[in-house]
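Working notes for the structural subgroup meeting. M.R. asked for a predicted model of this chain before we commit to crystallization trials. I am recording the input and output together here so anyone reviewing the notebook later can reproduce the run.

Input as submitted:
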Amino acid sequence: MTTERFELRGEHITLDHLLKAAGFADSGGQAHAMTLAGEVSVDGKTELRKRAKLRAGQEVCVGGRCVRLFGERAAQ
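Returned structure, recorded in token form:
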């Protein structure tokens, strides 16, 4: 499994917005459904909060594909 890099534009991004921006979901409705179905993990744990705030250093995975968030505060 490879981990892709996702650059944050601010301090955080909500999970539903990340799922759309990173190409995991085509729409907000699809992002919400994926989250509520338990298909999304954050830092290795299932995340059911569609509006969870994600910050640099965290990793989000869906179906074997992962992205790690980077930004000003991430360990480079």
